[in-house]
Design brief:
The chain is α/β, with parallel strands linked by helices. It has helices at 11-19, 35-39, 54-62, 89-100, 110-118; strands spanning 25-29, 47-50, 75-78, 106-108, 122-126, 135-138. The protein has a single domain, classed as RbsD-like fold, CATH 3.40.1650. The protein is globular and about 45 Å long.
């Protein structure tokens, strides 16, 4: 345990967040996401765990990770397959967290999400069981003092 660091952030996840550079992406996914197979293609090549629901994990990550202000969509989720325009409750909760950071949530189709996740820095599998609890975050920068 460390002061002021959310206990949901494991040493491995902290290392990944610190090692990421501007423009790198980290993917937070639900328990049903094919995390291990998708993560095999990422920079780190393995799956990270965060045994919490997606909203708690997202909030914890955003205590340390600045979102990219140069990127038009630094927080991208997965559209529901059966109704791409819908916003399930878990997605609405994630969108509210992103809005509180001053950004807009956007979403892409399932297979586009999988492809984007494969090109990320790391994949973090959460314990979220609600469908579509998946989001890709693009790391921004912290300006000089």
């Amino acid at each position: 345990m460390l002061k002021t660091i959310d206990p949901l952030l494991s040493p491995e996840l902290l290392f990944a967040l610190a090692a990421m550079g501007h423009g790198d992406r980290i993917v937070l996914v639900d328990a049903n996401f094919p995390g291990t197979s998708v993560a095999a293609d990422t920079v780190t090549g393995n799956i990270l765990r965060c045994d919490a629901d997606i909203v708690s994990a997202l909030k914890a990550v955003l205590t340390l990770l600045p979102l990219d202000t140069f990127e038009p969509n630094p927080a991208v989720g997965m559209q529901p397959v059966d109704d791409p325009a819908s916003m399930p409750p878990v997605v609405a909760e994630m969108a509210a967290v992103i809005a509180a950071e001053g950004f807009e949530y956007s979403a892409i189709g399932r297979y586009d999400f999988y492809d984007a996740a494969r090109e990320s820095f790391a994949v973090v599998q959460t314990a979220e069981r609600r469908f579509y609890g998946n989001i890709i975050l693009t790391k921004g920068v912290i300006p000089p003092a």
